[in-house]
Amino acid sequence: MQVANDKVVSFHYRLTLDNGSEIDSSYQAGEPLKFLVGQGQIIPGLENAMIGMSIGESKEVIVEPAQAYGLHKKELVKTVPRDQLPSDIELQVGLVLTGQDEKEQEYELIVRSFTDADVTLDMNHPLAGKRLNFAVEVVEVRDATGEEIKHGHAH
C-alpha cells in the first residue's frame, strides 16, 4: 500500500537545517508521527514528497520555505513599548512568548532584541525562511476509516 490521499501514514523522521543541526526527530519520542494524508496536517512540501512511498521505504526530502513555514516576513517583526509586556517577564533574546488575538487564538512571539524602553518581537514561525531537510521512513500505511475522514485526522 502506498502513501495517498485518505490514507493514514505513520513515519519516522529526522529534521535538520542546512547547517546540519538536528532540530527535531520522531526517534527521540520513540513513536512515529501519524497523519491523515490530504488534510494539511504536515507541511505541504513533505506531504507531497511522501506521496507514492511504500511501507519500509526511506527518502531524503528537501523542503523549501514556501512549501514549509513560509518566507520570513519583515512586517511580522514589531517593536513595542516594554510596558506592553507583563513586568514579571525576564526578557532574553530568543525567548518565546505566547500572545492571543481578538478571537482568543494563541500564537508565538520570539524576542529578537530589547532595551529598557522597547522590545522587538517576531511573529514569524521560528522556521520561516528556512530550508528543511528531512530523512523520512514510512512505517505504516492504511486506509483511513470513515470517521477519520469525517473528522479530518487520524485516530
Q: Explain this structure to me?
A:
With 155 residues, the chain is mainly beta. Helix content is 11%, strand content 39%. Strands 1, 2, 3, 4 and 9 form a five-stranded antiparallel sheet that branches. Strands 5-8-7-6 form a four-stranded antiparallel sheet, with no helix packed on it. The radius of gyration is 19 Å and the shape is elongated.
Write the topology of this structure.
Layout: E1 7-16, E2 22-25, H1 26-29, E3 33-36, H2 44-50, E4 58-63, E5 77-81, E6 96-100, E7 106-114, E8 118-122, E9 132-143, H3 146-151
Antiparallel strand pairs: 1-2, 1-3, 1-9, 4-9, 5-8, 6-7, 7-8
Question: Key terms for this structure?
Answer:
155 residues; mainly beta; Thrombin, subunit H; 2 domains; 4-stranded antiparallel β-sheet
**Computed CA radius of gyration, to the nearest angstrom:** 19 Å
Helix run count: 3
Please describe the biggest sheet, giving its number of strands, its sense, and whether it closes into a barrel: 5 strands, antiparallel
**Any idea what the CATH architecture of the largest domain is?**
Roll
Portion in beta strands: 35-45%
Structural class: mainly beta
| DSSP helix fraction | 10-25%
Would you report the number of β strands? 9
Number of domains: 2
Mean pLDDT: 94
CATH uppermost class of the largest domain: Alpha Beta
The name of the CATH topology of the largest domain is: Chitinase A, domain 3
Low-confidence stretches: none
The sequence of SSEs as H and E is EEHEHEEEEEEH
